[in-house]
Design brief:
Blueprint: E1 2-6, H1 14-20, E2 24-29, H2 33-43, E3 48-50, H3 56-61, E4 67-70, H4 77-86, E5 91-94, H5 101-114, E6 118-121, H6 128-138, E7 145-153, H7 157-160, H8 169-172, H9 175-178, H10 180-191, E8 195-203, E9 247-254, E10 259-265, E11 272-279, E12 282-287, E13 294-298, E14 310-313, H11 324-338, H12 346-363, E15 370-371, H13 377-384, E16 398-399, E17 407-408
Parallel strand pairs: 1-2, 1-4, 2-3, 4-5, 5-6, 7-10
Antiparallel strand pairs: 7-11, 8-9, 8-15, 9-10, 11-12, 12-13, 13-14, 16-17
Helix pairs in contact: 4-5, 5-12, 10-12
């Protein structure tokens, strides 16, 4: 398959994973020459250098493009993804889906109207510890799920999210969206239902105190992280604008009445996620979220017992994010080519964003419980059915035009 990659920033190495599955990167859309050079150093020089996503339509019309991988900043997702989908170009869209409900729904409508395949990169569904916890729950080992507690210790918060656009509400909405979109999606998966109402408390507790600021647009997220940046108040060169929370506590009620608490802190010394799932016959909890960690189960009564009744080790896996990047990229290629079922879901991605936005709105309005905006039932039904297409004469459609519903044979 022939792919274009949009955005040559921190997440660009995902393109290498697509290559390892046999896909060809035929174009990189990135206006900055230094980032284009970086792309060439990762995947090799044999691709077209483009400056705008609308240039892809000519490549698509000439039969030289099968799908697009969108790895651009969150606030750009809606325009780029909608344009590509209307042009008949299948899209892999890095999470989160978008940073507003309207933009999420705009993307979903574009995919449905054009009948062009959309895939959202919620790679945590492919992480082995998540799959193991889901298997234990589905086997009935802890009975019926009643509560989920999640703690996210974001140890590199000051390096990753407070030195660039993530620190600005206008570009990220908030870190409950950027970071918790992953966790909320996993919570919904484990509980078997989406959030209907959320309330929260949060504040900018630490990083707002730091006066040393710098425009870091010339630096990538990964290389600017260091364990030497400690304690948090010793950080330097933060983003000029910081108006998002670095500490948040959220409560959610799901459609099946499962109760959820979610806690996120961006100035912890350690970096990992901890989920506790409590059912009517026991509970499970993960200790570590990657290879070498474990999942523990308690299902006998007693006092404090650090040793569980059963324990499973999280196995090693190939590729980034505990093997999730390997799996999710392969799943996308199969989905575009053959329409195969996927672990990820665009509507689930929208549900995660909607819950995160409701929680963020609650935090910023005095902790008022906030209802989650509903999705058009017809749109949900389309995606829940696997994005069926009226005509499947060709595995990938042909188009004429850009930004209009002119897709043929898809």
């Amino acid at each position: 398959m022939k792919l274009a990659v949009l955005g040559a920033g921190f997440r660009f190495p995902l393109a290498k994973q697509f290559q390892e599955h046999g896909a060809e990167i035929v174009a990189v859309v990135e206006p900055r020459d230094d980032r284009q050079d970086r792309a060439a150093s990762i995947i090799g020089p044999g691709f077209r250098r483009l400056g705008h996503h609308r240039e892809l339509v000519a490549l698509r019309d000439d039969g030289g493009l099968d799908a697009a991988i969108v790895l651009t900043p969150d606030h750009t997702h809606a325009e780029i993804a909608s344009d590509l989908l209307h042009a008949g170009i299948p899209v892999y869209l890095e999470k989160p889906l978008a940073i507003t409900i309207d933009d999420c729904d705009r993307i979903l409508r574009a995919a449905r109207e054009a009948q062009t395949r959309l895939y959202v990169g919620h790679n945590m569904r492919h992480m082995r510890f998540v799959q193991m916890m889901k298997e234990i729950i589905d086997e009935g080992r802890i009975g019926e799920v009643q509560a989920i507690w999640c703690r996210h210790f974001v140890g590199y918060g000051g390096d990753f999210y407070f030195k660039d656009w993530h620190a600005e509400r206008a570009k990220s909405a908030g870190l409950l969206l950027q970071k918790a979109a992953h966790d909320i999606d996993v919570i919904h998966l484990l509980a078997g239902a989406r959030t209907t109402i959320a309330s929260g408390m949060g504040r900018l507790a630490v990083y707002g105190q730091i006066e040393d600021r710098r425009d870091n647009d010339d630096r990538l997220m990964g290389p600017r992280a260091s364990v030497d940046h400690w304690p948090p108040l010793a950080q330097t060169e933060l983003n000029p604008v910081i108006d998002v929370e670095d500490l948040s506590h959220v409560q959610m009620r799901l459609a099946n009445d499962v109760l959820v608490t979610y806690n996120q802190c961006h100035f912890t010394p350690d970096y990992w996620r901890n989920y506790t799932v409590i059912g009517t016959e026991g509970r499970i909890e993960n200790f570590g979220d990657g290879p070498g960690g474990s999942i523990k189960l308690w299902n006998r009564r007693g006092a404090y017992r650090p040793e569980p009744d059963e324990e499973w080790t999280i196995p090693a896996a190939e590729g980034g994010h505990g093997g999730a990047d390997f799996s999710i990229t392969l799943e996308f290629l199969d989905f575009v080519r053959d329409g195969t079922a996927t672990l990820t879901s665009p509507t689930a991605a929208r549900d995660a964003v909607a819950a995160a936005l409701a929680a963020t709105a609650s935090i910023r309005s005095g902790s008022v419980p906030t209802a989650v905006a509903e999705l058009d039932p017809a749109v949900r039904a389309y995606f829940d059915a696997g994005q069926p297409r009226e005509r499947d004469a060709e595995p990938i459609g042909t188009v004429s035009g850009f930004g209009h519903n002119t897709v043929k044979n898809c």
